[in-house]
Amino acid sequence: MRTDRLKLAANLTRPLLALVAAFALTTLALLSTGVSPLEAYRLVLFGAFSTPVRLSDMIMLAAPLLLCAVGLSITFAGGLYNLGVEGQMIAGAIAAMVPLRLWPDWPPLLLWLLAGLSGAAGGALWALLIGALRRYANVSEIFAGLGMNFLASGLALYMVLGPWRRQTSASLSGTDLLPRDLWLPTIDRLRLAPAAPVIALLALAIVWWALTKTRWGLEVRAVGLNPAAAGRLGVAAFRRMAETLAACGALAGIAGMLQVVAVHHALIPNISSGIGLLGLLVALLARADPRWLLPIAVAFASFTVGSIQLPLTLGIDSAIAGVLQGALVLFALVARARVR
Amino acid sequence: MHIAVENLTKRFGPVCANDRLTVSFAAGQIHGVLGENGAGKSTLMKLLSGYIQPDEGRIVFNDAPRRLRGPGDALAAGVGMVQQEPLDIPAFTVLENLLCAAPPGVFRSRRAAQTALLELAGRLGFPVDPAARLDQLTIGQRQQVEIMRLLLCGAQVLILDEPTTGITAAQARALFAALRQIAAEGRTVLFVSHKLEEVAELCHTVTVLRNGHVVPPGQLPMPQPQEYLLSLMFGESGAAPPIYRPLPAIDAPPVWELRHVTARSGALHLVDLNHRFAAGRIIGLAGLDGSGQQVLLRLLAGQQAPDHGQVLVNGRDLTGAGSIAFRQAGVEYLPADRLHDGMIGALSLADHFALLQRNGLLVDRRRAEELARQAIAEYQIKATPVTPIASLSGGNQQRAMLALIPSTARGILAEQPTRGLDVASARAIWSRLQARRDDGCCIIFSSPDLDEIMEYSDEVIVCFAGRIGPPIPRALLSASRLAELIGGVGFDALVDVVR
């Protein structure tokens, strides 16, 4: 009993220290701007919960963030660092636009389904290219992913300014808005499309189940831990790696699709808005443990949404949310490092 | 330098690897350290050379207590350790490897370092090329380089952990001569081994470890009766030696067949191999390190496709089909490095059995744990179904790897199956492999240990410079003849006779 309690205390000390250190660093950054840290923290931590609109903004950010983080937890389990998640999200958004632009008169329900499938396929394909580069050109998936991110951004920009430019004149602010009836059903006053969080939670449940209960999940984890040994035991190691990349790309692609049909209602150059990379932070902090993905994604989304008010109320930049998120991940990684 | 430990204690979780050890090693001598796997030898050596730090007790060099913060610290204090696996930078040349880790002020220039290296190499009788890249050298040569690096960096105490594992007999002889020279120059040598003959041949004293204790307390002068040392290492009862039995007549089709196979690996060319490997045999591959045994095993496991020719498994042509197809055809490959590419350290035995399940969407955990429990009982593995493999001892890992071989396997390829195991564990492993042979498997193993090859093979295949000899029945072979063949003496005649 007593030793259990001691062990629990020991297990909690390091995360708590990491939390304190992250806030200390963020406080230093705040103090340097001369604003009251307490006031800033009130906005960053609780701002997202102050009005229903902000709460729904937070949910609409948390949904794609969770999708990306869930996808990344698959690639982490498979031993891959999929830094290309941002590009996969963009590729998904572009692919999702295709059916919406080709057949705008079709029934919306069918079009959403098509857009979802097309987005997932686009993201998966973009991710599989990384797998192919790794397999056939011996390029690390980290560099391949980063390169593919630039390629995807360029492609989105080209589509916005080229083939899909506005009818009036090409504009960096995006394509023409989609017809109103193709927007995912939205509670207008709140800017909340309830389907988005539902899809994200569904993905979380399915992936958690797949990774912990299925034979596929066990094989993926075995490949992630030791591809050579898994191969010796008869697991098709490269195939599993490719599948994890495709699964992560598909989820990121669906996140991109949601950005198009539920948030921006158009393709904009910055359609991914750094959500994929924020998802990497979430997955890193959660250690790809599915139980932690949801709370951390919600927390990070609320920091980002809460900090949007900082420029208006306190006259400082909203980037402080990024400082807090980054510091949390950094110190969590430090706290986890094994003592030698 | 005189080196001693007092009440030295090191725990890993609940396991006390070194329990209040007190022992001292005098200068100018070679000290053997004996013990079975898990007795605490490696822990003691890592404590002495700064790789890990003790929980209690102290380390004393020349009557002054020292706290060692790391291997560099230990080397500055005069203690250097040669690890079982070479810990060097493979892409560097011998000279670069020497320079990059040298403490400041040891060498004034590259030229000075090279002169010092060649001078020492001459004294120790090690042939060395300062410009050769380490990844082009054999394990034995890299070990020689490491010994010279430590000595040139000022090591007064040299620790060697199982140094004769994976090196050739000739290299072992050169090593022994060099160690005698090093001791004669007044340095202290600690020689960790579980091979009694080597300790008997080389060492002035012996320290026996069992379960983290020195038994009996303190050093023993050599020589000692072999039976006495065995009883100290293993307690009173060792496993009974296996009984030699004649080959059964088998008329089943060959497990493997090579037809006009040509393959290459680095500078090694294997040309026009024609072999049939019959069922119900244990075939030992003998040869110097890198004579072609590795390539042959990789060909038979499907990990390397031949440049020309065909590889048949159970009569089916599987040329170029890949290792998974070979595995499905009943070929099991057991690598020498169990944790590197044999099993997954973080997963348990039950997880491994679950990985072997081929049907169903979900993992059948209950079935996997049941199989793991059966394997634990049958193979006497010291573990529970959910213990991570990495926390098992080497012998238990090897047993687990054997337990994971499906009963449908017809051919087993084992690379150094008893590498790093103590005598009792090795015997247990071999009795399992022999039972597999009796069930009709063909087992092909490689080993640098000629005694192991002579003791357990039904047939021996000698590899020499990329040429693969014909299978020789064990009964027709003597140890001295085998040693000659490995060195190439009479190898041509052997091949010609078969043609």
Q: Can you give a write-up of this model?
A:
The complex is a heterodimer of chains A (340) and B (499). Chain A has 340 residues and is mainly α. Chain A has one domain: Orthogonal Bundle (ABC transporter involved in vitamin B12 uptake, BtuC). In chain A, 74% of the residues lie in helices and 0% in strands. Chain A contains 14 helices and no strands. Chain A has helices at residues 2-33, 37-46, 52-77, 85-102, 108-137, 141-161, 195-213, 215-225, 227-232, 237-264, 275-286, 290-307, 310-313, 320-336. In chain A, helix 5 (108-137) packs antiparallel against helix 10 and helix 11 (275-286) packs across helix 12 (290-307). The longest helix of chain A is centred in the first third of the chain and has 32 residues, at 2-33. The model of chain A has no long low-confidence stretch (mean pLDDT 88). Chain B has two domains: 3-234, Rossmann fold; 256-343 and 404-498, P-loop containing nucleotide triphosphate hydrolases (Rossmann fold), CATH 3.40.50. Helices cover 35% and strands 24% of the residues of chain B. Chain B has 18 helices and 22 strands. In chain B, the strands form four sheets. In chain B, strands 3, 6, 7, 8, 9, 10 and 11 form a seven-stranded mixed beta sheet that branches. In chain B, strands 14, 17, 18, 19, 20, 21 and 22 form a seven-stranded mixed beta sheet that branches. In chain B, strand 20 and strand 21 form a beta hairpin. The N and C termini of chain B lie far apart (59 Å). Residues 237-244 of chain B have low confidence and may be disordered. The interface between A and B is medium-sized, with 20 and 27 residues.
